[in-house]
Structures are given as structure tokens and as C-alpha cells.
Write a structure and sequence with these properties.
Number of strands: 13
Order of helices and strands: HHEEHHHHEEEHEHEHHHHHEEEEEEH
Number of helices: 14
Number of domains: 4
CATH superfamily of the largest domain: Ribonuclease H-like superfamily/Ribonuclease H
Helix content: 25-40%
CATH class of the largest domain: Alpha Beta
Strand content: 15-25%
Oligomer: single chain
Distance between the termini: 82 Å
CATH topology of the largest domain: Nucleotidyltransferase, domain 5
Low-confidence stretches: 72-77
CATH architecture of the largest domain: 2-Layer Sandwich
Largest sheet: 6 strands, antiparallel
């Protein structure tokens, strides 16, 4: 018996009870059967939908056992969803634009409203490329060589990975892992799950990594919106490292961090779900378990590339590498965001839709406000690169109990100021 017959016989055995027993309701039977997993000779373990079982039943009733045998579509090689006009349009676009991949072209066709994502999928376009030999229009794969820096901190790579959904109140939100890996040792300089793929997540992760381990020579990222922000370039200049970006659509150049993300998906996330109750899948719990896994599993497992644990390779090299460090106050100032505001007649400014009070001497003047992204409610006023006052949240009720004050000390504008020197 060949494989086609074996598979056809398998189909028959599944639908036979509906054929021969009148008391079985096909809808309920097939729905229950769709929940089970079946071991198919030559195909492995698979599940089938209830609609698939209904289709088999229809084929058997119409064509008998032969109807359950594998058959080739009459229109194989022809694509019903593409017209000659669209095919010529695609060829024309390929001839004048250098699309690097089929995926790039598919996104372009959707963005330009040439096709709809529902009516013309990426898989369909890929089939068109194979059938008409259109891949000859795409550029040849870029020649590349494996590389590795000579010391730790020569190059850090940073990127985001989509994580599991976590509970937030009554709802679930998607999590994102921001991670920084050292090229030489594959040691993770910083990694944490956040609720957003944002500047906040990037800056928190990078700042923690620098404060704990020191300053990298270069930070390598892709061309995502988060990494192209002017503020990240400013941080690089203030701290003293080079910010570099890979070429668009060149994920292979960041292979080390992509490989690390695959390790997280394969070796951490499945076991997190297995060992965690549904009610305990929170961002805090996710990060706590991830931190433990990172320290006890990932850093302590021998890496296949250099046959050493990332922990050992990092700290062994650290003993012979000059590490640049930065004081906490200077690091805090390097990561500060800057805003400019003109002070109103009532000595107030508005930041993030909230009103704050500043010293009266700034009335009608444009001032420079700086703040830490992790402390968005603490705003400091800088003059000539020195911190001279702190904006305080406006309290109208408190102000109503006192006469108009012009003594800045009474208003606590100078309390809790960071180191005045920049």
C-alpha cells in the first residue's frame, strides 16, 4: 500500500462513523474530532479542522474511496488571483525599482493600493515569483563574512523582540523584550520586557547596562524609529560611544542578537508558560523569571561558537580590557530629555498637559527644562548648562491660602536639585 492509499484510508476511517451510523450527528462528531491530534504516516502529528472532515465526507459521497486519494488541482501553475495586467505591472516595478525581497514588493503593492492584503497575500505573490521566474529581478544575496570583535565592549548590539501577552488589570497586553548583547562574549549587557517598543524601554535598558558594566565603544542597531531618534544620538555624544545602524532590510548583519532572540523563544518562553499559572502571567513575574533564567541558564550554558560560557568569556576578557565608566550624576544628565517653554504671566508652564510653577523671575522668558525619562514628573530648569531650579506641580488650592509670594526659597524651587555642574 502506497502513501496516498494509506492517507486515503486514514480519511475514510475518520468519516466512516458518520457514513454507517445514522445516530451520529456529523457536525458534533467532526467538531470533537477536530480537537484531537493524529499521527499521519509520512506527515507526523497533525490536527484537522471540522471543515476538512466535511470536505472528505463530500468527496467520498461523490467519488467513493477514489475521491479521498490525493489529487492534483487542474489549475496548478495558474493563479486565479492575478491578472495579466497585474503581472505586467509587477514586472515593470521590478525593472525600475530595486526591491530586495518579495516581502518588500508585497508591502509596496499594498501601500500603493495596487493590491489588497486580503485579496492578494504574500504567499500568492511568492507563488507568482516561482511560476514566472521573477526572482531573477531581485538582487543577488550580499556576500558577507563571519566577524567577531577582539574584546568586550568593542561592539554592543541592541534590538527588540515581540514577547508573550501579559495581564494588565482586566486586559492582556503584548510585551516587548529590549536586549543588548556584547558581540565578543555574547553576554547580555541588559534585557527587560516592557509593555511598549519605545524610547522609554530602550533608554532604561541602555542606561542600566552602562551603569552596571561600563561604556561600549559602538552601539549597533537597525533602522527602527526608536533607534533613529535624535535623542539617542545625543546620548551617544554625551556618554561617548558611536551609534551605528545596519542597512535597511539587512537583518543578517545583526545575526548574533537575532540568534539570541531565537534562544529566548525556544528555551525560555515555552517553559515560562508551562510553569506559570494563567493568573500569574504579569510583566513583573515575566521579568523576574527571565532575570533568573538569564543568570542561571543562558549565561552559564556553553556557547556553541566558542565553547565557553558567556559569563566566563566576558569576565575573563574584562580582566585584560580597559573599561570606560561614567559617574552616576553624569550618566543621569547624559540621558536627560530637553524641552523649551515660555513662562506665562502667572509663573507657570505646561508640560505633558500638566501645569507647573516656576520662579517668578522667568515670567515671559523662554527656559530650558530637562528631565529623566524614568521620572517624567521631575522637571529641572537649566541656565548656561547649570541646574538652577526645579519646576513644581501647580497647586491652586494651596496658593489660595497665601498671598502672592516672590521669595523663590519659600516655593521650594531650589530643593532636591541634582549636581549643578553638567
Amino acid at each position: 500500500m502506497d502513501k496516498k492509499q494509506e492517507f486515503a484510508l486514514f480519511k475514510y476511517k475518520l468519516i466512516a462513523p458518520v457514513l454507517v451510523e445514522s445516530n451520529i450527528l456529523a457536525r458534533d462528531y467532526f467538531r470533537e474530532a477536530s480537537l484531537k491530534e493524529y499521527d499521519i504516516p509520512g506527515l507526523g502529528k497533525k490536527k484537522f479542522s471540522a471543515k476538512t472532515f466535511v470536505k472528505w465526507l463530500h468527496l467520498y459521497r461523490k467519488h467513493g474511496f477514489e475521491g479521498l486519494m490525493s489529487f492534483q488541482r487542474k489549475d496548478k501553475g495558474h493563479f486565479r488571483k492575478i491578472s495579466t495586467e497585474l503581472l505586467e505591472k509587477i514586472k515593470h516595478l521590478l525593472s525600475i525599482y530595486q526591491f530586495r525581497t518579495v516581502k518588500n514588493l508585497h508591502e509596496y503593492l499594498i501601500n500603493e493600493n495596487i493590491i489588497s492584503p486580503q485579496g492578494f497575500t504574500y504567499a500568492t505573490l511568492n507563488n507568482v515569483f516561482n511560476a514566472h521566474n521573477l526572482k531573477n529581478f531581485l538582487p543577488n544575496p550580499k556576500a558577507r563574512k563571519a566577524f567577531e570583535t577582539e574584546h568586550i565592549h568593542s561592539l554592543w548590539m541592541v534590538d527588540f523582540m515581540h514577547g508573550p501577552y501579559v495581564k494588565k488589570g482586566r486586559h492582556k497586553v503584548k510585551s516587548y523584550l529590549c536586549a543588548i548583547i556584547d558581540d565578543y562574549s555574547r553576554f547580555i549587557m541588559g534585557a527587560q520586557f516592557f509593555e511598549t517598543e519605545s524610547n522609554y524601554a530602550l533608554e532604561i535598558t541602555l542606561k542600566d547596562a552602562i551603569s552596571i558594566f561600563g561604556i561600549p565603544n559602538r552601539l549597533y542597531s537597525d533602522n527602527g524609529k526608536v533607534f533613529l531618534s535624535g535623542h539617542l544620538s545625543l546620548i551617544a555624544a554625551r556618554v561617548g560611544f558611536i551609534l551605528i545602524h545596519s542597512k535597511p532590510y539587512d537583518a543578517a548583519s545583526r545575526g548574533k542578537i537575532e540568534r539570541y532572540f531565537r534562544t529566548v523563544r525556544d528555551r525560555f518562553i515555552p517553559f515560562f508558560h508551562i510553569h506559570t499559572k494563567e493568573t500569574d502571567i504579569t510583566l513583573e513575574n515575566l521579568n523576574a523569571q527571565f532575570s533568573t533564567w538569564l543568570k542561571q541558564e543562558y549565561h552559564m550554558k556553553e556557547h556553541s561558537s566558542f565553547k565557553m560560557k558567556p559569563y566566563d568569556r566576558y569576565f575573563q576578557n574584562r580582566n585584560i580590557t580597559k573599561i570606560r565608566v561614567i559617574e552616576k550624576d553624569k550618566l543621569d544628565k547624559a540621558f536627560m530629555h530637553v524641552e523649551h517653554r515660555t513662562v506665562a504671566q502667572d509663573s507657570t508652564i505646561t508640560i505633558h498637559n500638566i501645569r507647573y510653577e516656576v520662579p517668578p523671575r522667568f515670567i515671559n522668558k523662554k527656559i530650558e527644562i530637562r528631565y529623566q525619562i524614568e521620572a517624567p514628573d521631575s522637571f529641572y530648569i537649566f541656565e548656561n548648562e547649570q541646574c538652577t531650579a526645579k519646576a513644581i506641580k501647580l497647586d491652586k488650592k494651596l496658593n489660595s491660602h497665601f498671598p502672592i509670594r516672590f521669595n523663590e526659597q519659600d516655593l521650594n524651587f531650589s530643593e532636591d536639585l541634582p549636581n549643578r555642574e553638567v
